[in-house]
Structures are given as C-alpha cells and as structure tokens.
Amino acid sequence: MGWNSWNTFACNVSEKLIKEMADAMVNSGMKAAGYEYIVIDDCWQTGRDKEGNILADPERFPSGMKALSDYVHSRGLKFGLYICGGDKTCGGRPGSMGYEFQDARSYAKWEIDYIKVDWCNHGALNAEGSYTTMRDALYAAGRPILLSICEWGSTKPWEWGAKVGHMWRTTPDILNCWDCEINWWGSGWTKILDKQVGLEKYAGPGHWNDPDMLQVGNDGLTETESKSHFTMWCMLAAPLIAGNDLRTMPATIKDILTNKDVIAIDQDPLGQQGFRYFIIDGIEIWVKPLQNGDVALCFFNRTNELKVLSKNWNQYEITDVNNGGKKIELKDNMIIHDVWANKDLGTLQNKIKATIPPHDVLLVRLKIK
Ligand code: GLA
Questions:
Q1: Same domain assignment for residues 176 and 251
Q2: Region 297-315: what's the mean pLDDT?
Q3: pLDDT above 90 covers what percent of the chain?
Q4: Measuring from each residue's beta carbon to the nearest atom of ligand 1, which residues come in under 6 Å?
Q5: pLDDT category, 320, cuts 50, 70, 90?
Q6: Which of 46, 98, 150, 307 has its CA 20 to 30 A from that of 159?
Q7: Total domains present in the chain
Q8: 41 CA to middle of ligand 1, Å?
Q9: Quick count: other Cβ atoms within 10 Å of Cβ 52?
Q10: What pLDDT score was predicted for residue 324?
C-alpha cells in the first residue's frame, strides 16, 4: 500500500512535492490506515556522471535522493523510485539497461525500499531475463527492496514473476475514466478489471498481480465510480497504490481510501485474489474467500440503471477457482455485514436485499458466527 506520483503529476515531480505528499500521507490518516510507500514515478532522473552513476535532476531534487529518502523515512514511511529496464524510460530519461548492478548500488546507498521497473525502449531484451538481472543486481546491492515489475502483461509475467519480483503489472496503463480506451496503451478501470479474470491463481502472499495504480479521487471518475474502483481492487487483493493528490483530497475520497474494513478484505492474510462468479442482469458477482472462513461477496452494478437485489444465497454452491473447484460453504447462520454501510443485514437464512445505484457496489462480508 502506498502512493505514486504518475497518475496525477506525470513528469511534474520535485522534492518539494514528495515531501508534502509524505506529510499528507501521515496527516490525512492514510499512514494509519496502512499506506506505507511513497514512490516517485518517471522523470526524476536526468543523466549520468563521468563514472556512469545515475543522477537525479539537480533542479527538481536539489538536496539529492539520499536526503529525500531520509525525510520520507523520518515520517515513518518507505521510499520508492521508478526506473526502466530499457535504455531510456518511457519519458525519455536514462534507463538501466547495462547499468543494472551500478544503479542498484546507488539505490541501496540512497536507502530506497521499492523499485518499479518499466519496459519502454527495451530493444531485443527478453523480459524475464532483464527483470531477473535487475533482481540479481538488487540482491547483490544487499538492501531488501520490493521489486515491482511493469512490463504491462506483455509476456505473461504472472507465469514467471513470482520468482523474480513481488508484483507484476497485468495490463497497459489505467486511465482516469470508467471505460474509455486509447489504443493498446491505456484504458479505464472497468476494462482493466475485465483483464484480471483468469489470473487469480497466480497471486498470493509475496507475489501479486498488479492491475495498476488507483485512479480513486481523480477527475474523470464520479465519487461512486471511485468507490466501486477501490472496492474491486480490494476484491482483487491488488496492491493499493493511491494516485491522487493527498494534500487536497476531499473527506469523501479520504474516507474511501482509508476504510479499514474494505482494506481488511484487500489485505486479508489468506491472500486470495477474488474471482468473478457470475453476471446476471448487468450485475457482476465477485467472490473472495477470507482467512477465517468468512467470504467477501461484491455485487457490482455495471449498468446505468438502479438495480434491486433480492435473493437467497444459502442455496448456491460457489466453487473456488483458486482451489481446484473446492466448494465455498455459505452457511445459513452467516451474518451478512454491509461493509460500506457498516451494518449487519441479518443472516443468510434471509435474502440479501439491496438497491444498487448505477456503477455502484454492494460489498458484504459473510461472517462466520
Ligand atoms: C508507463 C507505465 C506507467 C508510468 C509511465 C511513466 O506507461 O506503465 O505506469 O510509469 O510509463 O512514463
């Protein structure tokens, strides 16, 4: 869980911005809710010195990366940087191709905790090979660093990523819209969501599918769409990397990003990615088994109409796609807890009844008594 500069600030990053964001992460209650990493995305780097050492932009980061890292750590947070496995980053800055071991030593010296490795300008490089080189370089540098693989799902990183890094992007870029699409390169969050179906079994503790950073709170999404986006990322057990301006977010958005019961579903220790069980009348029903036998059920209204739910759930057999089709037990005496409303709706002996506005969700935690 953390924050990354790209979705709101793109190349407009500076030491002032990052310090303010670290302060805002603490002061807003995001840190207390579990957010931990502050990550600078593309454009912090400008060149290399005579010995080939990577250099931060001296105008935007006049105190240098070690001082900024110290500042972020002094706020009780961890610090991350974006780099690229090709010879230039997507924003045209120096990449790490051929400099992996030397760069890893700089990151360890700066006490970096998280590295996101992008994939622009990689030429003839093989993805698994290149990311493995960076993994080995980070090991050799001797500092524990989270490795976030960002090759956009192009070589099925879910098949090799667990050996190489801690999380891997499954798709090209998320855009701040419901379902827009720009060529291959970017799409709205519901389209990104569809691309997660089938990848459930590859995720688990320490090795996660990454459906990209959150657009929660950004222009282009309604508040309801931000809420359903956040909910679905939690159902996916996704890394929760906020991408909005934490300094100015309204209380409504802060309340979405810091809801502890929704976050608990994302961070559940079982670490199972939820799956889409059924689609009926435009409502998607997603299921995420939780550690103590509880089950998260999410009803996602993808239509533009209000939908009324009224169904008995104790009669359904749900098979778990992550566990070889094992049956998920829904017992009569399970309590139906509406997570966003924070209220119990009776037990599964009764119907689950709700009206779900367009683009909204009903998220329930079925609790073992
Ligand atoms: C790629 C990545 C994005 C972002 C930009 C930066 O598009 O997928 O997440 O890091 O590069 O240029």
A1: yes
A2: 93
A3: 94
A4: 6, 41-42, 82, 90-91, 118, 150, 152, 173
A5: confident
A6: 98
A7: 2
A8: 8
A9: 11
A10: 79
Pick the last residue of a domain from 235, 266, 297. Answer: 266
**So what's the pLDDT on residue 158?**
98
Tell me the best of 40, 82, 117 to mutate to test the pocket of ligand 1, counting ligand atoms within 8 Å of each CB and taking the most.
Answer: 82
Say if residues 289 and 270 touch (Cβ distance below 8 Å): yes
Active site annotation includes 332: no
CA 2 – CA 194 distance, rounded (Å): 24
Q: What is the average pLDDT across 136-145? A: 98
In terms of domains, do 181 and 248 share one?
A: yes
Model-level pTM?
Answer: 0.98
Residue 72 and residue 18 in contact, taking contact as beta carbons nearer than 8 Å: yes
Q: Domain check: are 72 and 194 in the same one? A: yes
Regarding whether 280 and 259 lie in a shared domain, the answer is: no
* Residue 363 structure tokens: 């998220």
Q: Candidates 8, 12, 40, 41: which one to mutate for ligand 1, based on the most atoms within 8 Å of Cβ?
A: 41
Q: Is 173 marked active-site?
A: yes
Cβ atoms < 10 Å from Cβ of 241: 24
Question: Same structural domain for residues 248 and 279?
Answer: no
The tens digit of pLDDT for each residue in 2-57 reads 999 999 999 999 999 999 999 999 999 999 999 999 999 999 999 999 999 999 99
Give the CATH number for residue 337.
Answer: 2.60.40.1180
351: containing domain: 275-367
Which residue out of 41, 173, 245, 320 is catalytically annotated? 173
CA of residue 177 to ligand 1 center, whole Å = 17
- Classify residue 28 by its DSSP letter: T
